[in-house]
């Protein structure tokens, strides 16, 4: 995704890229070892995955997104995590 757009927030950074002609969007999660041990990384991934699942219907087709959660996403409230995901999806829906 060298042509992708990078964005960063307090809870995660993301790279996204529009692929015209695609019928659905793809979302990946990458949590580096610096975030903590396997238990911590998996918990981070689960929290962000759930926020994405709840708001995926707002995302238009054709986007490829890679989310890199930060350690702050572990202690942040779930509503704050959802707002950040919504903000990213809104950014993706703009032309």
Structure overview:
This protein is an alpha+beta fold and 95 residues long. It has a single domain (5-90), classed as Ribosomal Protein S5, domain 2, CATH 3.30.230. Helix content is 40%, strand content 23%. It has a four-stranded mixed β-sheet. Helix 1 packs across helix 3 (78-93). The protein is globular, with a radius of gyration of 13 Å. The chain starts with a strand and ends with a helix. 23% of the residues are buried.
Q: Could you tell me the radius of gyration in angstroms?
A: 13 Å
Please give the domain count. Answer: 1
Distance between the termini: 18 Å
The low-confidence runs, each spanning 5 or more residues with pLDDT under 50, are none
Strand tally? 4
Largest sheet: 4 strands, mixed
N-to-C SSE string, H for helix and E for strand: EEEHEHH
- Named CATH architecture: 2-Layer Sandwich
In the CATH scheme, the class would be: Alpha Beta
Based on secondary structure, the structural category is alpha+beta
A few lines on this structure:
The chain has 95 residues and is α+β, with helices and mostly antiparallel strands. It has helices at residues 38-55, 72-75, 78-93; strands at residues 5-8, 12-18, 26-29, 63-69. The protein has a single domain, classed as 2-Layer Sandwich (Ribosomal Protein S5, domain 2).
């Amino acid at each position: 995704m060298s042509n992708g757009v990078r964005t960063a927030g307090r809870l995660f950074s993301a790279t996204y890229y529009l692929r015209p002609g695609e019928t659905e969007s793809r979302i990946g999660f990458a949590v580096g070892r610096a975030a903590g041990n396997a238990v911590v990384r998996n918990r981070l991934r689960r929290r962000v995955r759930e926020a994405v699942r709840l708001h995926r219907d707002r995302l238009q087709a054709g986007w490829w997104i890679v989310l890199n959660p930060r350690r702050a996403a572990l202690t942040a409230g779930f509503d704050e995590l959802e707002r950040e995901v919504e903000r990213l999806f809104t950014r993706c829906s703009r032309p």
